Amino acid sequence: MLQEQNQGNTRGDGRFEAARRDSDGLLRETGSGRFGTVRRAQVNTVRFRGYYKGKYKSTERGRSMKVLDRFLNYVKIYTTSDHESITVPSTQRQFDLAHLLVKEMKGIGIADARVDENCYVYGTIPASEGCGDCISLGLIAHMDTAPDACGEGVSPQVIRDYDGKDVTLGTSGHVLSTDKFPHLKKMKGCTLVTTDGTTLLGADDKAGIAEIMTAAEQLLTGEIPHGKICICFTSDEEIGGGARHLDVEKFGADYAYTLDGGAETEIVYENFNACSAVFEVDGFNIHPGDSKDKMINAALVAMEINAMLPACDTPAHTEMYEGFYHLTDMSGNVEHARLHYIVRDHDFGSFEARKRTLLHIEKTMNERYGAGTVKLRLTDEYRNMVEKIRPCMHLIDNVKEVIRGMGLEPDSSPVRGGTDGAQLSFRGLPCPNLGTGGHAAHGPYEHVTEEGMERVVKIVLGIIRKYAAGC
What we know:
Elements (H helix, E strand, L loop, with lengths): L2 E8 L5 E6 L5 E3 L1 E3 L2 E3 L28 H9 L18 H15 L5 E2 L5 E5 L11 E6 L14 E3 L7 E2 L6 E2 L15 E3 L8 H17 L9 E6 L13 H4 L3 E5 L7 E2 L4 E10 L15 H10 L16 E9 L3 E10 L2 H22 L4 E9 L3 H4 L4 H12 L14 H7 L6 E2 L12 E3 H20 L2
Helix pairs in contact: 1-3, 3-10, 8-10
């Protein structure tokens, strides 16, 4: 049964925007009106705003779902994690996507698909005939989105045959600019997916999930030889907890790849060392008319703390291997103030020096204002995986060969971030990261192309073939 949903939008160039929901529950671009007719799945510059609000239907056996269709279904689900929470997962809403994925995995033939109490989704594709002795590979992505920007009510714009120019993001006033993002010009002619400017998109990391699921479905057709494939979708990666509760032994992989952000030709095995730093400042509030030599204004103390950090060591002033202190959140008044930082550095020695600097600031401020005025809490999150990947560089070399075999050039630049693979590599499961085709994560400028995601699916299948051929 066909259901139609008029999104009620018109473009500035007069084209009518609408979306149709077919009987399979997926949005299809279509529509007609006084500004012209849009032909289903053939129009070049269609975009739809709004997300699929109906009941999601998992893929049925024998029915293929495109990677873009999967992605658009996943981003509608609100899965933002919360670094203030002490529960696992940090937000119960992550289970909404987890349960959907289990249902979909079972629908394509992954019989042992399941979700555990920590909101980790597991599933296994047994080795194909003759490949039982091949290396077992893991594929991992995370379900949560970053708390840096709103992740609720994601309303993607889908632009067919993108013209390579600036994109207005809904009515938000934000513009996805080719000046800020020069790579957009290379996406001309592609199907570009953006936000409407009011939320993040969720390509980090729902593009990775969609790519793994699409590759898994193709493997289950039986046409591609492969060893055992172990799949896991984790929770809370964006707040540093993604791999903490993954049971490596039960997971069953010899090696693994995370699919988590970055251009589709990206292969990452160098990442930041990372921790969070929280300063809590307790002030002394008294009437300002009687406050000389008595008042301690916690908000001003917090400003002093930030001023003690190197002004040039911020994300806006650093690149490549350079580390930083990043103030992500601050609040306060006279009585109490709070500063939340993330601290990053590729070099472990420099990373430890940054933590010592923060501890020295705590000591100095307490000497100045009295013991207990300032309290610092440091929480290690992940380490640079490079030392664990160097002994098994076949994980990198095979990916580069596959990418070059597709006529593309691999990029193995150090990533200015981290993935679940960083933690897993130190727990005995070497796990570099593959790009997903996503760009500008954690904010309203996040975007991805359908073609980029499709290339990642081909890269994943090429890696699996390569390991099967070598066993």
